[in-house]
Structures are given as structure tokens and as C-alpha cells.
Amino acid sequence: MNSTLKNILAVVAGLVVGSMVNMGIVMISGSIIPPPEGGDITTMEGLKSTIHLFEPKHFLFPFLAHALGTLVGAFVAAKLAASRKMVMALIVGLFFLIGGAINISMLGGPMWFNALDLIVAYIPMAYLGWVLAGKK
Questions:
Q1: Distance of CA 28 to the CA centre of its chain
Q2: What is the pLDDT of residues 87-101, one digit of tens each?
Q3: What does the pLDDT read at residue 129?
Q4: Are 78 and 88 within 8 A, CB to CB?
Q5: Residue 98 contacts by C-beta under 8 Å, 6 or more apart in sequence?
Q6: What predicted TM-score, i.e. pTM, was given to this entire model?
Q7: What is the Cα–Cα distance from 95 to 17, expressed in whole angstroms?
Q8: Which long-range contacts (CB under 8 A, 24 or more apart) does 94-102 make?
Q9: Residues 22 and 66 sit within 8 Å (Cβ to Cβ)
């Protein structure tokens, strides 16, 4: 298989698997740390209108979802890529970073979480995914 095509498929696979990890963590988060009383987290509008009720503990699972989704996605991309494995892992991280920035622009949220999320959960996790994949 052509190495360019294999690299593209590696990034797509990383995005799909990383998104599945992200959504899996988000879906179980409410059963581990219940949302604030009266908080509707089932829709984007409900989440936006109740995010001011969130305590720091409510941001733990969203952060883990973003960080671990990116980490696993970048790992998969680096493992499957034919060449330039670090670049493929970082591309996955960049896609998730763009998604995170869009999410923040729609939801808002506390500045400390937004900064932590954008600075730590994406590019550093993509780099770590590449390192864990073998750095070849």
C-alpha cells in the first residue's frame, strides 16, 4: 500500500478510535460524578446553561476524555503510520485541539479549565502517544 495512503488511514483510524475513547469516558462520567442538582447535561444548550453550577470535580472526566482520547488516537495513528509517525500522531492531536477550541467557544466554562484543557490535553498527549507507540 502506498505510504501516503497508509498515513492518511492511520490518522483517520486514530481519530475514530480516539473519538470512541473520548465519548466512552464522557458517557460514563455522569454515573461516577453526578452532574450538579438541576443540571441538564444531555444537550449542548442544557450544558451551556448549567455549566456555571459545575464544581472542579465535574471537570475531571471531560479533561480525562479529551486527554485520553487524544493519547489513544495518537498512539493508534503512530502505530499504523508507514512513515513520519510523530507527525501523524501530532495531526491527530491538532484535530482534537481544534475540536476542543470549538467546544470551548460554544460552551464557555471557567478559564482555568479552558487553559488546562487546551494546553495539556491535546498536543502533549499526542506527543506522549507517539512516545508510547515506539518513537520510530
A1: 15
A2: 999 999 999 999 999
A3: 98
A4: yes
A5: none
A6: 0.92
A7: 13
A8: 94/122, 94/123, 94/126, 95/11, 95/15, 96/15, 96/18, 96/22, 96/66, 96/69, 96/70, 96/121, 96/122, 96/126, 97/122, 97/123, 100/66
A9: yes
